Amino acid sequence: MTIEKALVVGTGLIGTSAALALRGKGVTVYLSDVDADAVRLAGELGAGREWAGEEADLALIAVPPHLVGERLAELQKRGAARVYTDVASVKADPIADAERLGCDLTSYVPGHPLAGRERSGPAAARADLFSGRPWALCPRPRTDAKALAVTRDLVAMCGAKAVTVDAGEHDSAVALVSHAPHLVASAMAASLADGDDVALGLAGQGLRDVTRIAAGNPLLWRMILAGNALPVAGVLERVAADLAAAASALRSGDLDDVTDLLRRGVDGQARIPGKHGGPEGDA
Amino acid sequence: MTIEKALVVGTGLIGTSAALALRGKGVTVYLSDVDADAVRLAGELGAGREWAGEEADLALIAVPPHLVGERLAELQKRGAARVYTDVASVKADPIADAERLGCDLTSYVPGHPLAGRERSGPAAARADLFSGRPWALCPRPRTDAKALAVTRDLVAMCGAKAVTVDAGEHDSAVALVSHAPHLVASAMAASLADGDDVALGLAGQGLRDVTRIAAGNPLLWRMILAGNALPVAGVLERVAADLAAAASALRSGDLDDVTDLLRRGVDGQARIPGKHGGPEGDA
Description:
The first copy, chain A, is built from 11 helices and 9 strands. Chain A is α/β, with parallel strands linked by helices.
């Protein structure tokens, strides 16, 4: 493999999980985070040791989307690694930031592993978090082929499946399959906040599944959604219109529109590919 | 126990699962269905034998909601059992039907097990379908105490937890925790129908969970929703309004309303009681 030394910048759930996976493959992993406690905890969990400026084969930037460009510019200025990638859930904005900040775009491979949990922080990390999951890579025309190959090795070492996709196409895709579903789950869950205890006592697995991802961190999700606002808004408008029409049909007593929505739901649900890997959620 | 002989009318998923649970407790189970193939298959699965008019201690009416009153009237006319209960997902309409048809309401205990699967029919039945799940019972002022006790024994024999609740309160509750969530899942799933393959290829466990119950039978769900239309419409209107407001906030760039929705979602999700029993969905 092309990665003997890796630098993980941002030792939250995703960064620490990748670090653990790389450690399991014998890679030397250096850890960095603005939060010294997070680095120490990740280190104690066996994810690697604190970075002291060593040069790495690859730097994995696992910070919130709006900080990726800035962090990339700093790391490249220090010559921290030969190849750089990130894990942000949106891709167009970080790439635009990197261009604006004058980053070297030949050594940067924008990435996004489709994996996550409701819990965050290094304590929630798992070496198998990415096992069997898609990991989007969004190389640009200027991306160096060698940099892409090294990043593909990272994905393989984490047990994930690399999916190469244009950055704009990626952002539209995750609006549909991840970001809008998160807010749909939030809206359904929010309606429970005023429900009485008798009602909640009748809740079953269906409700738990529909609303599970709504437990995610609101501030993290605000940042993700802010970076992909228009594609997400488009999906939500369609869902809201379908639900308003269903409510109207229910009030009128003519349920043909409701039946149509139920049928379209069956068709759409059937398009989701089979289960990948572990039991927990994507972000 | 008070149940030595039970009659199961309607050998679909729910009826056959209850029959299997009762057989596991040594109860003699008679099976009846308008579909002779369904009765034969349920019998072959060990759920009991075809009913030939024997009198039972309890008759479990497991037919679609709009047929409950009619079937109850027929069975009572034949003197099929001492006690009658049903499993319809809505309760006010079947009770009104029973009253309208002049049924004996002292021996009828309206019921609803909060359990189900996306698959239907006797082949999908499982003896442990109700294990640990809530099973709503909606006795009326006229309900005989003995009939309620016998029905509670049925619930206990199926491994479920009896929850006594007023019929109207039940219908509002399941609108919130089961029927509206179903249509929310359908609307999210419907938006995938036109998604491209790249987008679907990035789908993860979160999307699968949010949309899982949307795979349910559209015609069965149309009947359930028709019987609980106004309470479901009320919940859907609130969810649709929250989603439309979130879309509008995303378009405007002022994400405070989105953050508020995310926070309310966390609060609402936290109100759902812990997991009951098996891995599959309620209906």
